[in-house]
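worker-03 picked up job from queue 'complexes'. Input manifest follows; three sequence lines, order preserved.
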Amino acid sequence: MPEIAEVETVRNTLKRQILNKKIKDVNILYDRIIECDLDLFKKALIGAKFINIDRKGKWLILELNNDYDLLSHLRMEGKFFLKSHNDPIVKHEHIIITFVDNTDLRYHDTRKFGRMLIVKKDTLNDAPCLKKLGYEPNSTNLTADYLLNKLKNKSITIKTLLLDQSIISGLGNIYANEVLFAAKINPFKKGQDISKKEAERIVKASNEIISKAIMMGGTTIKSYTSSLGVTGMFQQELKVHKRDKEKCCVCGSVIEKQKLNGRTVYYCPKCQK
DNA sequence: AGTGCGACCCGAACGC
DNA sequence: TGCGTTCGGGTCGCAC
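worker-03 finished. Artifact:
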């Protein structure tokens, strides 16, 4: 389940593998992944080359050497694999981009939740999916005052607010749980009740946790392996996520698991009062 | 406007 | 064992 750290790992891995190779063909085996016009998708890619890969929040921005960029969101289980065009197509490979050297960039997505679209370079910053993103967890723009301003008058819980990409872009369920544990804040606390001191702790914790997770290549839980065999090592660093019924590493209390707005929240009832 | 929830998917885990 | 059911994950769009 890729979060920002995993997406960053995929970005770095793909940059080493697919830049400056001319695209020969594009095959769309499951078209609901593609959010834009299918003809535009193929037209923009065929004959072009990727010249850089950027990232905003959890979106990958694959820049082409023409007027277009390819945006890709892996959602939970999207992965890219580089294979020979002669390799058999396996289950869950949905988009095949073939280069002139007969290698394929294959998009694999068990859940089919991922999304891709082509946007014009000159309107990239107006793309709705990018425009609404808040600051990133390790951005210096993410300050306690910025956060407090976003949380004021919010009656929903801080846990739910941390998942809102328009406030902080890139935190998913795993890191939201970890950030609140590190900041010693109860996940059920309302946004409007967060103090400046608490906001400072959230900013500090998200910065530290995400920086470390990126350094370690992300978290691997369940089926997720980032592209091309690079496996994240951050999982062992998780203090509360998926650790219900285990003892808190700080105080020894039993970690609890609950449902909150349809999402699973893990927390230490003693450390996070 | 703010909030909550179902829908999108399918494999794994669970219950009987 | 084998079946059916539930769960989880990020985001959007709809309903209130």
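worker-03 released lock.
Chain A has a mean pLDDT of 88.
The domain at 4-131 of chain A is CATH 3.20.190.10 (N-terminal domain of MutM-like DNA repair proteins).
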